[in-house]
Amino acid sequence: MFNTGHNEKMIEVLSGPERRRRRTAQEKIAIVQQTMEPGMTVSHVARLHGINANQVFTWRRQYQNGSLTAVCAGEEVVPASALTAAMK
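Request: output the structure for the sequence above.
Response:
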């Protein structure tokens, strides 16, 4: 990332074959929670992070329905298919 001067805007240059920025669940949750702070809007937070506002709205929906979760290191993860099979 490069600091472009006094306006504190950061630019991230992606090199190589991958052009998209991959964000962890923790990063997505932090961004979503920032949109819920008083005086913050989704579009403003999206601009701060260089993300399309539609993507942030998607993450908010996932966060609200519980599908956007951060898994801690060492925590056991059970695939959804195993849970479905166990319920039958």
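The first strand starts at residue 2 and ends at 3.
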